[in-house]
Write a structure and sequence with these properties.
This protein is α/β, with parallel strands linked by helices. The chain contains 12 helices and 8 strands. The protein has one domain: Alpha-Beta Barrel (TIM Barrel), CATH 3.20.20.70. The chain binds 1,3-dihydroxyacetonephosphate. 1,3-dihydroxyacetonephosphate (13P) binds next to strand 8. Homodimer. It is an enzyme of class 5 (isomerase).
Length: 252
């Protein structure tokens, strides 16, 4: 089963609008064809519109880093998935461990967001991942499996097949302590097995599973060589144009 690789940068709460513009100008003509790889930048919501203008006519796609699960209403400070979709944004990252931990997002919120993102014609990048404590207790597969099942609840087989799931062990995020490729492969396979159990093998063979956590230009190829790793979700190494472009060298 061949799945198209997807490399996504997650800028988190970094860059000003003008820094984002400079970044896009620096990389936009060097992005490989999206027949080979989907290349995505997850930008802060406040300059998503500028990002979409900046990438027009290029192979670069844009993700929001979060959204609310209602399209409109009295939800001060939240961003509507309908509004994000209207800008032409293709993906929304949901369930990042930083959102779960610092902003108390639950599996139920994440599931509602996944439904809302599909209802608005976008694709969710659904994050999952265990803490060091859970990893060391040998409970990562069980914990991550439950997160994945909960996030996908009630979606159609077609929606699940088109989803992106990012496995990001919390202990590897921003620490420089990346998972071994064997661990990444085992966990991405475990994620796929959960999708197979809930939605069937055909759907599981189509869903794209990324590894995230201290991915950089020197280790990305090793992850991409794993049969169940279809891409990477990258924080720190996605912030500089040279480093971001080097993450895409594996397709050459
Ligand atoms: P780092 O690549 O900085 O470890 O961040 C990973 C991440 O959280 C991407 O969503």
């Amino acid at each position: 089963m061949s799945r198209k690789p997807i490399i996504a940068g997650n800028w988190k709460m970094n860059k000003t609008a003008s820094e984002a513009r400079e970044f896009v100008d620096a990389v936009k003509n060097a992005i490989p064809s999206n027949e080979l790889v989907d290349t995505v930048i997850g930008s802060p919501a406040i300059f998503l519109e500028g990002m979409k203008k900046g990438v027009k006519g290029t192979e670069l796609q844009v993700a929001a880093q979060n959204c609310y699960f209602e399209n409109a209403g009295a939800f001060t400070g939240e961003n509507s998935p309908a509004t994000i979709a209207d800008l032409g944004v293709e993906y929304v990252i949901i369930g990042h461990s930083e959102r779960r931990d610092y902003f108390h997002e639950t599996d139920e919120d994440i599931n509602k967001k996944a439904h809302a993102i599909f209802a608005n014609g976008m694709t969710p990048i659904i994050c999952c991942g265990e803490s060091l404590e859970t990893y060391e207790a040998g409970k990562a597969v069980e914990f991550v499996g439950a997160q994945v099942s909960a996030a996908l609840k009630g979606l159609t087989a077609e929606q699940v097949a088109s989803s992106v799931i990012a496995y990001e062990p919390i202990w590897a995020i921003g620490t420089g302590k990346s998972a071994t490729s064997a661990d990444a492969q085992n966990m991405c396979k475990a994620v796929r097995d959960v999708v197979a159990a809930d939605f069937g093998q055909e759907v599981a063979d189509k869903v794209r599973v990324q590894y995230g956590g201290s991915v950089n230009p020197s280790n990305v190829a090793e992850y991409m060589a794993c049969p169940d790793v279809d891409g990477a979700l990258v924080g720190g190494a996605s912030l500089q144009p040279d480093s971001f472009l080097a993450l895409l060298d594996f397709v050459k």
